[in-house]
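Subject: Phytase

B.,
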Amino acid sequence: MKSIFYSILILAVCSCQQNTNIVTLAPDVITETTLNDTDDPAIWVNPKDASQSIIFGTDKETNGGIYAFDLQGKIIEAKTIRHIERPNNVDLTYNFTLTDSTKTDIIAFTEREKNQVRVFSVPDMQPLDGGGFKVFTDATQPDFQAPMGIAIYHAPVSDKVYLIVGRKTGPKENYLYQYELVSNASGVQLHLVRKFGKFSGKKEIEAIAVDNEMGFIYYSDEQHGVRKYYADPEKGNAEISLFGTTDFKSDIEGIAIAKTGTESGYLIISDQQRGLFNVYDRKTNAFITAVNLTTLETDGCDVVTTPLGSAFPKGIFVAMNDAKNFYVYDFGKLEQAILNSIQKK
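Prediction pasted inline below.
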């Protein structure tokens, strides 16, 4: 099996004609396996002890769940949410204000087979959604109601929290819905604030990522390109740009935003069938390079660039791997691999 594995990687690298000097980086940690099929990770930084941070990852099947892993890749059973009916994508944010003015960190994820999204507190893992919030309820076609991708926009000035939700399939206009998550005397609620987002119709839209500080939403229109919109609903629904249209072999998948400064950093996007990650400049969205992280068929990925203890002094990058697990990388090593790849060009 190992020789077949490496043969696949070599073929993937050789097939990429635009990147003839790709740097390969092995993972520092490989997580324990899930039951079914991993898809998308999100990284929670523990504010009390960053070395005790948690990697959350979806396991998408009818008997699926949101797995919690420590930084050594071990499953934390007490923090794992099971019996979720096909969870697809997951995201998180910090300091969501509850009705009593207390704050909690939260994760949000889609539960496709129930046509809803779920919201849980972190790290105590308590549901805040009364069993789930239905989405796309006004869609007239049943297959347009099944949620898939999700990302959270936490507005830095207003402190409002929004869920941007995509679906398995949908119309060519208004493919995404944006909901505000609010807490009042009736509890936590979800309110639709806008519909937006173009769709090529070629495959589906799954990966969504938000740059809170710069105020942008990015999403992968698979087999077409990466689309960019304003995250603030008041700035309108016009598409800002479409890029990466010729940079991917087929499916454009997970998007991770690595922030190295106020506006500096990288968009790291899975080139799924090629087995690579394309890297773009965070500010200009210009293509920089591609790196080989030895994952197979990567869907989701995530990154934090804050120190997570002595093992990961510059944060971590996490990518789904098609063997029911996730690969974890020291972000300092990944950034150096990106710089080395640039120098080899």
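Confidence is low (pLDDT under 50) at residues 1-19.

T.
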